Amino acid sequence: MTKKIAFQGELGAYGHQACAETRPDFEPFPCATFDDAMEAVRSGTADLGMIAVENSTYGRVADVHALLPKSGLHIVDEAFVRVHVNLLGVPGATVADVKDAHGHPVILPQCSNFLKENGITGRVSSDNARAAREVAEGGDKSQGALASELAADIYGLDVLARQIEDHSNNTTRFLVMARDTDLTRRGSGEMMTSFIFRVRNIPAALYKAMGGFATNGVNMTKLESYMVGSEFTATEFYSEIEGHPDDANVKLAMEELDYFTDYVKLMGVFPAAPIRQSLR
Questions:
Q1: Is 3.40.190.10 the CATH classification of the domain at 4-83+171-178?
Q2: Most CB atoms closer than 10 Å: which of 61, 114, 119, 132?
Q3: DSSP string, 24-36
Q4: 63-99 tens-digit pLDDT
Q5: 213 is catalytic
Q6: Whole-prediction pTM
Q7: CATH homologous superfamily of 192-270
Q8: Catalytic residue among 22, 57, 172, 193
């Protein structure tokens, strides 16, 4: 039986593109929300989840970082997907015909220059692929969608303008999540370790907790903070570092982190994507 990989959005979404490019042997399983995609993995409906976490133009996908700690899932891989934004329209339409372009709030800022230059108003949609489907169903030449060429193929739309993103390196990073993880797994190259922690309520706790990574030569590539529940006094941090938990320097750094925190949760250990080398 073909394994399934869940993603947020409808068929033709950029999450679908990420699944097709990096897990072509899995059947894409569309979900309305990120939480639904994670639940599909938790329940066993899907084997993996393809979860967008950040875009090089827009920044982080805030909702996801709030969902990660309570997801009950593990990060087992990462994928960087080049995002080309296209203006799609009904057959026969031209760019000049389009008055409104519908897309997810994350994608609208990624092509703001093109929209402004062509006098097109960006309209918020819950999903780029849904926008493409609704434009196809509406049959109105004045309405366009900001989506992938995959979405154009699926919904029978014309690509009116290709690669209209403001920045040529527009890339979205996805985390691949699973119910279980193998912490002994080693890739052929560098490994990444991700974890969530909450510092103790003592002066300079965060500074001291981070000190162990610096003194042990562990490169921290990400540190994101977010509030816990509705309490302004409780802040959790999501972090990613280069290395494996079994590495001697990582062990020492994590031991020091543990001393200055009251909560540490390992989220995943996964091979570093090859593209990371070019990002340095």
A1: yes
A2: 132
A3: TTSEEEEESSHHH
A4: 787 788 889 999 999 999 888 999 999 999 999 999 9
A5: no
A6: 0.87
A7: ACT domain (3.30.70.260)
A8: 172
